[in-house]
Write a structure and sequence with these properties.
This protein is mainly β and about 775 residues long. It has a nine-stranded antiparallel β-sheet, with no helix packed on it. The two termini are about 40 Å apart. About 50% of the residues are buried.
Length: about 775
């Protein structure tokens, strides 16, 4: 719960406690009611809500009242969603004349799992609340309710169109997401159905009672059956009006209602509605991320997960961010001292800091010792510390805050006017990052984000690009793109860590591993228009590797390899010395005189043979061996060979490593990058790549299939230009430290083991598909 002064509440999921199979079900002291048949709503043995939806069923709950009267008032609802709706023996056929890619007949079961759900937050507007089940699709209590609802399709993508034939001869596509406002609310009864009520089995409400404020856009939520997605619904009062945001399975959409008419002044009701006959078998809602401790993704937490966990025991992450170039490091305080008034700088620039106040060196740091700040403690680096600062900066550190409720807790403060500073938190419980006239506020933070346990923060600004961001434990939690205030006046000014420069409300808590870089970590990444091939390898079955480049270069898979859940990020493809992926010959047809191959590899047992990662062309050819028979990493491109002779087994075996192989024949440049660092290069590589175009291309094998690859490959890409180091680093920037870092604190230790033990023998929930007639209406 936020402070009363902030007037915001964050419902961190639907906290499911005890409930009844018949009648209302209790969610975090809130009663949830079913509009028609309460037997279709129950709690499973994991405290998750199971709903067997039918047309036109609705769930309604009375929420703790949250005001929306003042700017900054907000409510966030967050939980995890799983649903299923299998098509039963239906064929999809093209109807070219109708302009569709996937055209079904009139059998509604062919559209199972493609229907829309509607979820809305409402102000009851003094009309009362639902207090019993069987309240029906229409109810007079709803008359006058104000609010907003989002309409979404969980399982389908904008590239996969499902068409439903309408009685007037038209067809409806089931791919859109949209938002509606409750308008002219006293026209008739309401539920969360915004469009003409003639589509409903019951009711005759007037469509004028809803106004669409976010036009439908093609979405690609593409949630797999029996998979989980995080759903976040947020509503907040901003200076322009009321902003509502819907996020699902990694995609997020927002709209601001700028009209002052019929705006809710509070939120006290949640409703979820299923309005059509396109059937679903079930929906499951969970408060916490389900099976988080199922490390190997086999639907049960048991010995296999314990083995995976033990492999990473006592590993630690560095800063949960992309590899930051040490050449750009301006300051690094490890805070490993045990006594004294000096914080030693480990950046190599001799910027030792002066420690003042009643702080203490203690042995409870994120790693080793750290510095305890007691509201009168500060570390002052020399004024010239930021003398080399340009228009980009990154501050990173580990924090473990104490009791700082209701006050500004300054982590650092630099300069006079302009200045740069961070408060974690401020007096309202927000995380605030200010840099040269631009302010970014993370309003959704809670006490767990800054108090009681170690949390990593990074504060980023690139004034030239106008970009500004806050990262928590490697995840971007806030950003803005209009932050152009120049950093030019910051160098050679006063700099305090753990304090405001005026020493009002200094930091309370522990700080460890404080760093400053004069670069940005938010590069735009490689040019998508120059991406020729992208195999994510995220399938779970089949002999086709789907291409995500947009060029339809799907590859054929042959051999005894298998899909694996142990990927760098999600799934990957396992290669067993006889496995190969063959992209079409046309894949490299547009290659010029520059190319970049990138991928993640996790090599298996090394048999002292050439481990071919890819091979394309025939005199000339391009290929890579990771490693070769001598344990080296070799990159050959059109007559030019580059060998990284210093490679060790840890550079390609036993853990995930990212490689990039680049060549620019016009410039004669050729290089190998490992985890974003250049490990080998040559500058006389002028062999033309022209002969490689439109030739046979093998991934995971030599073209003669001698000594094919052994191990795992993930996220394989080809670009027709040379990627810069920052572009290569952007490809590895989205990964959390480790899947076995269950607590997300950047370390694998006893805390993670305790979480694993608490979920021991948890299994995936098995739904009884025939419990209700899921195909009925």
């Amino acid at each position: 719960m936020k402070t009363k002064k902030q007037k915001a509440i964050c419902l961190l999921g639907l906290i499911l406690s005890a409930g009844l199979v018949f009648g209302s079900v209790q969610f975090d002291s809130m009663a949830w009611y079913h509009s028609h048949n309460p037997q279709r709503l129950e709690l499973n043995d994991r405290g998750q809500l199971v709903w067997y939806p039918g047309k036109p069923h609705q769930l309604t709950a009375h929420l703790p009242e949250q005001s929306l009267e003042e700017v900054g008032d907000s409510l966030t609802l967050r939980y995890f969603w799983q649903s299923r709706g299998d098509k039963l023996g239906c064929d999809c056929h093209d109807n070219i004349s109708g302009g569709g890619d996937c055209d079904f007949d009139d059998d509604v079961t062919c559209l199972a799992g493609t229907g829309d759900f509607r979820i809305g937050l409402f102000d009851s507007n003094s009309q009362g609340y639902i207090s019993s089940d069987n309240y029906g699709e229409e109810n007079g209590i709803f008359t006058g309710y104000l609010g907003y609802q989002w309409r979404f399709h969980p399982h389908i993508c904008d590239t996969e169109r499902f068409w439903e034939h309408k009685s007037d001869g038209s067809r409806e596509s089931h791919t859109n997401v949209s938002c509606w406002k409750r308008d002219e609310p006293f026209i008739d009864e309401i539920d969360t159905e915004p469009w003409p009520c003639s589509r409903e089995l019951l009711g005759d409400c007037d469509p004028r009672s809803w106004t669409r404020i976010f036009d439908p856009v093609p979405a690609c939520f593409a949630l797999g059956f029996d998979q989980w997605a995080e759903l976040v619904l947020k509503i907040e009062r901003v200076s322009q009006g009321i902003k509502t945001t819907f996020s699902f399975n990694g995609l997020s959409y927002s709209v601001t209602d700028t009209s002052s008419s019929y705006q809710p002044q509070k939120i006290d009701t949640l409703a979820i509605h299923f309005s059509n006959a396109r059937p679903y078998d079930y929906v499951v809602l969970a408060a916490e991320e389900p099976l988080k401790a199922d490390i190997n993704d086999d639907c049960v937490v048991e010995n296999g997960d314990l083995m995976k966990f033990s492999e990473g025991w006592l590993e630690k992450g560095d800063c949960l961010l992309p590899s930051l170039n040490s050449d750009n490091l301006l300051l690094r305080y490890k805070f490993n001292e045990s006594a004294g008034e000096t914080a030693a700088d480990s950046s190599g620039r001799n910027m030792d800091g002066q420690v003042s106040g009643n702080g203490d060196w203690i042995d409870q740091g994120w790693e080793g010792n750290c510095l305890q700040f007691n509201d009168d403690t500060s570390v002052s680096p020399p004024p010239e510390t930021l003398s080399n600062l340009g228009e980009a900066v990154v501050f990173t550190c580990w924090l473990k805050g104490g009791d700082a409720s209701g006050r500004d807790n300054w982590v650092f403060d630099v300069g006079d006017d302009p200045y740069i500073s961070a408060r974690v938190p401020d007096a309202l419980g927000n995380v605030v990052w200010h840099a040269a006239g631009d302010t970014l506020v993370w309003k959704d933070s809670t006490a767990a984000d800054w108090r009681g346990s170690w949390v990593h923060y990074a504060f980023v600004k690139n004034a030239a690009a106008g970009h500004m961001a806050i990262y928590r434990n490697g995840e971007k939690v806030a950003e803005r793109t209009d932050a152009n205030g120049s950093l030019a006046s910051i160098p050679n000014t006063g700099f305090d860590i753990g304090a405001k420069r005026s020493h009002a409300n200094d930091y309370i808590g522990l700080i460890d591993e404080f760093r400053v870089y004069n670069l940005t970590i938010d590069d735009p990444g490689p040019d998508p228009d120059k991406l020729m091939l992208w195999y994510k390898f995220d399938q779970s079955e089949g002999n086709i590797a789907a291409d995500s480049s947009g060029h339809n270069m799907d590859g054929n898979i042959s051999g005894s390899g298998d899909w694996s859940s142990e990927g760098w990020k999600g799934r990957c493809l396992k290669f067993d010395n006889d496995t190969v992926v063959n992209p079409p010959n046309a894949t490299l047809s547009n290659i010029g005189e520059a190319v970049t191959f990138t991928c993640w590899v996790k090599g298996g047992n090394f048999l002292s043979h050439n481990n071919w990662l890819f091979d394309a062309g025939h005199y000339p050819y391009v290929n890579a061996r990771v490693p070769d028979s001598s344990g080296n990493v070799v990159w050959h491109a059109a007559g030019d060979t580059l060998i990284w002779e210093d490679a060790a087994s840890s550079d390609w075996q036993g853990s995930w490593v990212h490689y990039a192989f680049v060549k620019d024949a016009d410039e004669g440049f050729m290089a190998i990058y490992r985890n974003g660092e250049k490990v080998a290069e040559k500058n006389d590589a002028y062999g033309s790549l022209a002969g490689v175009r439109s030739t046979v291309f093998d991934i995971g094998a030599k073209r003669s299939h001698a000594n094919d690859y052994i191990g795992l490959i993930d996220d394989f890409r080809v670009y027709n230009y040379v990627l810069s180091k920052s572009e290569i680093n952007s490809l590895i920037s989205n990964r959390r430290f480790s899947k076995i870092d269950l607590t997300g604190d950047g370390r694998i230790n006893l805390n993670d083991y305790v979480l694993l033990a608490s979920h021991w023998l948890d299994e995936c929930f098995e739904v009884q598909f025939d419990k209700f007639l899921a195909r009925d209406s």
